[in-house]
Amino acid sequence: MTRTDMAETPPIYITYLNRFDIEALAIDDDELLLAIEQGLAAQGRGEAVIEPRVHLEPKVSNGHFNVLRGALRAPIDLAGVKVVGDFVDNYQQGLPSELAMLMLFDPATGVPRAMLDASGITDMRTGAVSALGAKYLARKGSKILGHIGARGTAYWNVRLLDRLFDFDEIRVHSRRPESRDGFAARLSRDLGKPVRATTDWQSCVEGADIVVEASRLHEPTPLLRTDWIKPGALVIPYGTMSAVELSLTDIMAKIVVDDWGQCKGGKFGSLRADVETGKLSEATLHAELGEIVAGLKPGRQSDDETILFWHRGLSLSDIALGHAMLEKGARLGIGQRLRFA
């Protein structure tokens, strides 16, 4: 584009929400769950485009970038790209393991609309997808939660799951004592109920009604044993590196994913070995969660079903939550308007 062409182009502005703006929005649990549920339903109805994530590995440290891409039709009417770093050793420098940016565009013209700090968005939407998976797939009377992992997404997993189920018992585990103890203390304070940090995986997950595995492993290691899973439980594994035994899928009445397109390919993910060996395929997959949320396929149908929900992270959830934040920011006058062209 020449300088003359640029002069004739109508002014283009983008909305920028940094981390402080995101915090000032104070999105509450119900607003968060509603935005993500609407995005899932749109996906289930086919009102979205989603492309499998791709990865960039700089190979200068123990980490990589995930690049997520998708688009949602009206009323949201946005396309989005999120780039999120996943760097396991960042805690050694006092940094979060996941830092992210979300860019939103007009899907009809490509005009940029907004740029948001998506580190918190990633944590929040991941927790919301875990919770909504449980809403449709866990037993209604679930009262014990076992949660492995204490990274950023873990807080929102537990917070939003407890919002829906009001657990009698919450157990958490993480490899480093200072991590799991601090995590349990923060949750106890924020939820107003005891949260117990366990020293091992088995005592955390055995007998739990809902099991979430969000570990941070350097390589696939089967630490979550199949025989610890209670009949009728919901298991939600989503670690980058698999922590489950290959036999875990054998005990499942239903296996549900967030998006089969991205679950069936790539080198990362909790059930990667199950896909590669053919144990998980289109034939053995029950549904994508969006199909269940949209009412096109059934979720849990009986208390004795043991169900697995594997989610890898949806660009559509980022877009839906980003849209909700932009709408609230416009109402409250929060955010910065930047000249783009």
TrEMBL record:
What is the protein's name according to its record? Ornithine cyclodeaminase family protein
Instruction: Give a Pfam family name.
Output: OCD_Mu_crystall
What PANTHER family does the record tag this protein with?
Answer: KETIMINE REDUCTASE MU-CRYSTALLIN (PTHR13812)
By its UniProt entry, which InterPro entries does this protein fall under? NAD(P)-bd_dom_sf (IPR036291), ODC_Mu_crystall (IPR003462), ODC_N (IPR023401)
